[in-house]
Amino acid sequence: MGTDPLPLDAEVVRVLSGVTTATLTTVLLKKGLRNVWLRGARPLQAHAQRLAGRAFTLRFVPAREDLATPASWGSPISTRAAIEAMPKGCIALVDAMGVTDAGIFGDILCSRMVKRGVTALVSDGVVRDIEGVLGSQLPVWCQGTAAPASVAGLTFVGWQEPIGCGGVAVFPNDVIVADADGAVVIPAALLEAVIPEAVEQERFEGWIMGEVARGVPLPGLYPPDEATRARYAAWVRQQA
Known about the structure:
Elements: H1 10-16, H2 21-30, E1 42-43, E2 51-62, H3 79-85, E3 91-95, H4 107-115, E4 120-123, H5 130-136, E5 140-142, E6 154-159, E7 163-165, E8 168-170, E9 175-179, E10 182-186, H6 191-213, H7 226-239
Parallel strand pairs: 2-3, 3-4, 4-5
Antiparallel strand pairs: 1-5, 2-6, 2-9, 7-8, 9-10
Helix pairs in contact: 2-6, 4-5
């Protein structure tokens, strides 16, 4: 259904796992993209590890009584069917319309996603069966928990199509990076341009932190003036 999922190179995953979402928002801002941080997608687990993967999108619409029923869970168009289409390494990116009183997934579905090798679940909605979800060890970013099932407030309509999640447009196979600050989408077409800039930004800010630790005042340091840039360039040459 929808767009075929694409793999994400293991080296790209490794590199992005070392880049904060804060850095990525800055790099994307410099490219003119202001709306890339998914509102409401917060780490469910404490001490969330930074993760990266291609977005495998799922979409809900408001509940309609003839469609949003327990019987719909066995439909060919269902969250169950979507999970069976998820490739290893993807991040399930779910548009739940920000609904917080109907849990989109519970312990059984999250456990199945773990078995399929899904990297994480990210949503602007909520999950249910919190103890089981945490026990599944699936990393989750969402708005929290609610006891009612998804059909109490939502109708599942499809996967691998463009969605809006947390106020952000997400297309299948965009790249998602999620950490303690939330989740950020990198448009697939910009990935190659973003990675080297993000890596360099991390290196530069790491050097800046070292300068701050030495007691260097912020004016002229951050943002850097020409003298600071020259000192940084000299430091980079020394590392080569």
